[in-house]
Write a structure and sequence with these properties.
Blueprint lengths: L9 E5 L4 E4 L13 E4 L4 H19 L3 H9 L4 H9 L25 E3 L10 H6 L15 H14 L18 E5 L3 H6 L17 H4 L32 E6 L18 E7 L15 E3 L6 E3 L12 H4 L11 H10 L9 E10 L2 E11 L5 H33 L10 H32 L4 H22 L10 H14 L5 H7 L6 H5 L12
Antiparallel strand pairs: 1-2, 1-3, 4-7, 5-10, 6-7, 8-9, 10-11
């Protein structure tokens, strides 16, 4: 037997840099002298998943009232108190055995044995293996997992599951969901900052609700005929414990075996799994840790996912604050900024966003980014958030104009050029990365300007100047402007002129994006020769 509440299986790092494995309740050990500060798994997706695991466990068994939340932020519960809370659900956290198994079908089923690497999202799927097309991610690289890594891989897959072929369901949030968390200076705080008050997640968990929260404690709600599982069908806390994939792990003993992920001994580890289709088909859920867009026609919330564009301050609106076009932040982010941040104004906290970029069942990349959470008083919040939206939108316009200008410089007929998305992604990445520090400084300056009652026009135009000064050298580099023998000088000059005109402070679109007064008619006349309508690459 291997119980995830009792065993020391979670790899962590303490403040002094030492790395150890702990059981979940030990995240509060030595809070004043040498606290646990972070998950220390060797895989970034495991680190993110284990963070989510701890949040879900605390949310399920130790959800606070609003008053107690603040008390326990500075003075965490004792290890014994947390362990007593976790013991209430311990029977649901056995990794092996004859009864309920963590995130696995309750009952054994008939299916072909598959390699344990099927738990890893980036490894080739069943159809890829059958067709022998695993060209870049090769089979057989992970043949064995120790129990801690198997548990982490199982949770990672169930929480992020992409489409896996006919009947193999995606996660409760769809394939490769984006996760956003508030991150503090210790692991306890990084968990506690993302725990909602008990009133926000439905009635208190009772024994009779166990299978409604942990779907593996009852026969699987299969979806053979397209049946769906909504928040009305089960306990709301199942949002943290979704089980879309039907899986059974099979342990075996091998003397001297090691884990192919962490390198630790894995004598009693796992080499095989069985998987079956028609798992739980989730629909209509709003996960507390995931930002959502809102369908304008139906009002339905749809989880946001990772993308090839990565994560940067371009996603500030929709991840940190509401935006009509980009969506709504995760519930935990909204709650923190609306009710908790005002009582922690001097604490420097960050938002961490993580997620896979998925192309159907194929993992194209893992993305992770952090950005500071700026405190602003309620009286200034609306104006500050509007200014933040304007700063991001004008950056979007300049980035778009930069891409368009590079296309015009490189190709005589940009419409006819084959689209090399990786090339333009590289331009975008450089632009956003190299202006991020200035964006954060400008946000701070905006907050200071609002507190002082100052006009923000100068700050906004200063931000535009930063963007233009970054766009021009990037244009030079990517348009081959300094390699005259390899480029058409006239096209380069014309494209640069268009870039400068389109991003000028007098351009109407720039004015609108920044929320400034439109240019006077006599100023518009001076900008004759403005660029033609840009084509998006």
């Amino acid at each position: 037997m291997y119980n995830l509440i009792h065993e020391r299986w979670i790899p962590v790092r303490r403040r002094d840099g030492t790395e150890i494995r702990i059981r979940p309740a030990e995240i509060v050990r030595d809070p004043d002298t040498n606290p646990v500060v972070a998950i220390a798994s060797v895989r970034p997706d495991f680190r993110a998943a284990l963070h989510e695991f701890l949040i879900g466990l605390v949310q399920t068994t130790f959800a606070p009232s609003s008053d107690r939340w603040f008390d326990l932020y500075d003075d965490p519960p004792s290890e014994d108190e947390l362990q007593r809370a976790f013991e209430t659900v311990a029977p649901a956290f056995e990794l092996e055995g004859d009864g309920p198994r963590f995130l696995q079908d309750l009952e054994e089923f008939e299916a072909e044995d598959s390699g344990i690497d099927r738990l890893l999202i980036e490894m080739p799927g069943e159809q890829t293996l059958k067709r022998n097309t695993d060209l870049f991610q090769k089979r057989g690289r992970v043949d064995r997992l120790c129990r801690p890594c198997a548990a982490a891989a199982l949770f990672t897959l169930q929480a992020n599951a992409p489409g896996g072929g006919r009947g193999h369901r995606t996660s409760l949030r769809g394939g490769g969901p984006l996760t956003t968390l508030v991150v503090g200076d210790t692991l306890w705080r990084s968990v506690w900052l993302n725990v909602l008050e008990s009133s926000a997640v439905g009635h208190r968990l009772a024994d009779r609700d166990r299978s409604s929260v942990f779907p593996w404690c009852a026969p699987t709600r299969t979806s053979k005929k397209g049946e769906i599982t909504t928040p009305a069908d089960v306990h709301p806390l199942q949002a943290y414990w979704g089980m879309p994939r039907r899986i059974r792990l099979h342990a075996d003993h091998r003397d001297g075996a090691g884990c192919d992920v962490c390198g630790e001994p894995a004598d009693d580890g796992f080499s095989q799994i069985r998987a079956k289709d028609s798992g739980v088909n989730y629909s209509g859920w709003r996960h507390p840790l995931t930002p959502h867009t809102v369908d304008k026609k139906t009002g339905e919330h749809r989880p946001r996912h990772g993308s090839a564009s990565g994560l940067s301050y371009r996603h500030w609106t929709g991840l940190v604050q509401n935006d009509p076009e980009r969506g709504e932040p995760a519930l935990v982010i909204s709650q923190f900024r609306q009710t908790r941040h005002r009582d922690l104004p001097e604490v420097r906290l960050r938002l961490r966003a993580t997620g896979y970029d998925m192309d159907n069942a194929k993992a194209c990349g893992w993305y992770e980014a952090e950005m500071p959470l700026v405190f602003i008083e309620d009286v200034h919040r609306a104006a500050w958030e509007q200014a933040a939206r304007q700063l991001v939108r004008v950056a979007d316009l300049v980035a778009f104009s930069l891409r368009t200008a590079v296309r015009k410089a490189l190709y005589k007929r940009p419409k006819d050029m084959p689209i090399d998305r990786s090339f333009f992604t590289a331009i975008d990445d450089r632009f956003w990365q190299e202006t991020e520090e200035s964006f954060l400084k400008t946000l701070d300056a905006v907050a200071g300007g609002l507190r002082a009652g100052e006009d923000l026009t100068g700050l906004k135009l200063g931000w535009l100047d930063v963007l233009r000064k970054k766009a021009e050298p990037l244009f030079d580099e990517y348009s081959q402007a300094r390699q005259i023998g390899a480029a058409d000088p006239k096209r380069i000059v014309d494209a640069l002129r268009d870039l400068l005109i389109f991003t000028a402070p007098s351009n109407r679109k720039i004015q609108e994006a920044l929320g400034l007064e439109p240019p006077a008619k006599d100023e518009v006349k001076k900008t004759r020769g403005k660029p033609r309508k840009e084509e998006r690459p």
